[in-house]
Each structure stands twice: as structure tokens, then as C-alpha cells.
Amino acid sequence: MKLTTTLGALALLGTAVAAQAAAIPESVIQQSFHPYKSGGPQVDAIQPGMVINQSNVDAVMEYLDPAMYRFIKNGDYEITVGETTSFDLHPSYVEATRKYSGDVVLGDQPGKITGSVAGRPFPQEPSLDDSRAGEKLAWNYKYGYNWGDSAAISPFYWTMKDMKSGKEERQFKMNFHFLNFTHRTSQTPYPEITPNPSELFRGIYVQVLEPFDVKNTQLLIQRFEDDQKLDNAYLYLGFQRRVRRLSSGQSADAFLGTDIMIEDFEGYNGRIMDMKWTYKGTKWMLSPMYNHNDMQLDTKTHKDDDGYQVVAFGGKGGCFPQVTWQLRKTYVLWSEPKDPNHPISRREHYIDAQTFVIPRNITYDRNGAMWKSWTIGQTHPDHHLPQNKGTGVSVDDAFSMVDIQANHCTTGQFKGIVDPKLSPRSKFTVQNLRATGR
Q: Is residue 277 domain-resident?
């Protein structure tokens, strides 16, 4: 990202900030974006460098979500504690919050919001006395800074594994691309790309590179600014050489036969209005957030020409990223599908309060039994690829989706790149699916 772009974004977003600052006190902004300004949490039972395993997990179980506690208690995984560090978001996103959040108002029903142009819509601390606190957190996630204004994961390796034996059953190599059409703050143009006749908010584009039998399978998701409009979702099947439109129900199907639904992407990939959102409280919790360059890296496979190495995996079946976990301020948020035919009863989202990424999720089946456990490791951008330094993006770096009931997992190893040239607007069109598929 060029310095001129950054300075230009800050200058534009700084216009009229003084007039808006009175609406949201600066103390609220600081609390929202800089929760570790005075240092990290002081918990005697958890110290950087300690290893949490079967022998000591009971003493720290209050700082773990129920699924992760179960894995450690069963001996499936051990975690090493890292120092709590600040993942500062890009200054332009913070400035946009100052400028616009004072004007943001929820509508009379879920899925409606006004006044949200860019930045965090609701920087105020959530309250258990607020019946719509969960909905506000969901909007903060939707309009968060995950991947910034645009980014690419290239390449992206997904591996299906039998958790009992550790056998790798199938591996996919893909490229993922993300582009925000609106709510932009750091990459020109901002706050939105024009013209935008369809009034899109975000695009997600996926292209499968390997194996041969699914090569050039492509997925395109076009999400509208209006949350009450259903996403446009299209699938290009390479062996059929045609584009077909996906129904809304197919977002809850297994993607390419893996343990992941399209709706699972990034922690939750869907509309606000489709879920009942309930805020369950704020806690100090252990989350997989770290510095990529300091972690145990995979030296055997997936080494790129530039020397980049993905995070290594271990634990039972090789289903868990070998990264450090740090104590972080965390919002506990439940989402329950309104559709009675949905395959799950709820998700428990453990949202990082500073960045609003979702490092941990637990999914429950229709009967209320624990079904799947989602982990997505987050690296600090300044300790990753050189081109990510200074972007203020909490970079997705490694994921694990464990099907607890089936003793199976799908893991993901990333090379995430924050570079607008890799995700041009033309990539997020149906025409691109056809052209790329030829």
C-alpha cells in the first residue's frame, strides 16, 4: 500500500471529524480500538510461555471455550500461551468510526440499519441490558476490517483428514479473493466504488486450482448493501463448463465435500437478518492470535518460490494449528438460524473485541449437541509478508474445522496478501467465471 494512498485516505476521512467527534466520546473510541493501551490482562494462572495440557487445563478452563477445553482435556491438543499484543487496525478505519458512527441507527427490525458509511458502526461497549446488543455486534463484524478493503489468499491449501488415523484424504489448492464495494477506508476509492448499480457491499471469489477433477471450479458471492436482499451466489463447474446459480439453502451444504459450509467462511458468511443474535457477555479468553514469522512453520510442504512457509499443524490427526494463543478481550455472541430447516441450532462466536474477527466458533446440531469446532488463527500483519506490514489487517493465517461427531477435520493453510491489484473489480462478475473457465 502506497504512502500517498494512506495519507489521502486519512485526509479525506479526517474532514468534518471535529464536527462529529462530540457524538461519540473519544474515550469510547479508545476503549474500542485500544483495549490493551495500559497493558494486557493480569491473570496469575496464565503466563506467556506456559503450556496448557491435560494436567493443568482444569485450572484455566474459564479462559477457554467449551470445545477447546474438551480437546485439551482429552489430550487431542496442547496450546502454548503467547504474550497479549495489540492488533491495531488501520488509522483510516478508526477515523471513519469517529466520523460516521454517531449517525448509525438500527432499523425497526433485524437487517435494517441507517447511517453506516464506513468504520465500526457501534463502538460502544455492549450491554446485557440491551436487547439488541447482539445485533449490533453482528453489524460490527459485517462492517469490520477483516482483510481490509480487499485482499487475496494465494495460494490457499485445504486438506481433509481422518482425525483418528491422521490420514490425509484429499487436498485442494485454491485462490480466494475479497473486495469491499462500500465501507472502504484505506484503498482508493473510498468510501465506495462507483458506479455500483447493483448496490453491492462485498464480493467473494474462489477458484480451485487442484486437484484435476475439480480444477477451475469457481464460486462467486455478491453480497448486497441491503441486508434484506438475498446474496447472488454462482458456481462454475469446470467439467460442465457452465455457470449455475446457487439457492440460498445451498450455503449450508458442505463445500466440495469438506467439513465447511459456505456459510462458515470467515466465522459467519451470511445475512444479519437470517439469525437471532444474542450477546452473552464479555470475557478474557485464549485466542489463536500471534506473529506468523515466530511460529512453527511447515518446512516439508507448500514452500513458495519466495520462501514463504505456511503454519504447521499437529495435535490429534494433524487437525490443529501449531500456534501460540494469547489472552484477549472477547465478546461471546450466539447466532440461531430463523429457518427451522437449517442444519444447525446455533453457533457460539468468540469475537475478538479489538479487531472483530472470529478466531473461534462452536456449531451445534439441530438437537443441540456440539457438532463442529472452528479455529482461524490470526497473525499480526507486521510479522508476516513484507507487503502486509502497516496495513492494520488482522491476517487470517490458518484454519481448522473439526467435525467432533465424525472424528474428521478440514484444515487450511494461508498465504494472505493485502494488495488491491490482486482483486480487481472485474474478478467479481459472472462474466469472469465464464472467461476464466474456458
A: yes
DSSP alpha helix (H) spans, 48-145: 66-73, 91-100, 133-142
Give the cell for residue 83.
Answer: 504474550
Q: How far is CA 320 from CA 49, 124, 408, in A?
A: 19, 34, 12
Is the pTM higher than 0.85? The answer reads: yes
Would 10 be classed as within a structural domain?
yes
3-state SS class at 159: strand
Phi, psi at 233, each rounded to 5°: -130, 130
Total number of domains constituting the chain: 1
The predicted-structure confidence for 363-401, as pLDDT tens digits, reads as follows 999 999 999 999 999 999 999 999 999 999 999 999 999
Where would I find the beta strands (DSSP E) of 269-314? Answer: 275-287, 289-290, 313-314
Residue 6 identity: T
Q: Does residue 250 sit within a domain?
A: no
- Which grid coordinates are listed for 45? 494462572
d(CA 289, CA 312): 15
Show the domain range for 296.
1-134+153-172+259-417
